[in-house]
Amino acid sequence: MNQNLIDMEWDVDRVQQFDAALNALEASMAGVVALTIDQRRELTKMGDKSEAFCRQAVDAFRENPGVLPRNFDLDGFVRDMLAFDVLRPRAIRLERMLQKVQDTQMALGSDLMTNALDGYAVLKVAGKGEGLEKMRDMLGARFNRRGRRDDEAAEEVPAGA
């Protein structure tokens, strides 16, 4: 193998441990929501400047609860800010872990693809006459130059034309 960015093995115990950790994490996430694409698009977003505004609002509202309408849930507003503060560092950790998982998958995929290409190149040259034609053809199908548009155009041509 010419490329080996990563070499890892997942034994049964390690996979079970990983899955148990994911199950525990999912179980601990009660109350976490999943938004639809439309909801994400339509929601008012809170950036850095908006966060400072919201923090100032918490202080101002706590100091002057009498100016708020009776139906304003000040306790709920404060709970949301506290929950936001609890969730942020955990979200950062999760993002880092997810990035590492994605990078690992990318490295494994790159190792696989690079080495498959190297092996295929050798097979094309050294495998001639050794009864490996079907294997070469099967692997070579990945590089079929006929694209999707060609397939669609062929389907549109009436039979006998």
Secondary structure elements and their pairing?
Layout: H1 12-27, H2 37-42, H3 48-63, H4 74-126, H5 133-140, H6 148-156
Explain how this protein is built.
The longest helix has 53 residues, at 74-126. With 161 residues, this protein is mainly α. The relative contact order is 0.08. 67% of the residues lie in helices and 0% in strands. The protein has one domain. It has helices spanning 12-27, 37-42, 48-63, 74-126, 133-140, 148-156. Helix 3 (48-63) runs antiparallel to helix 4. The mean pLDDT is 89. It contains six helices and no strands.
Structure in a nutshell:
This protein is mainly alpha-helical. It is built from 6 helices and no strands.
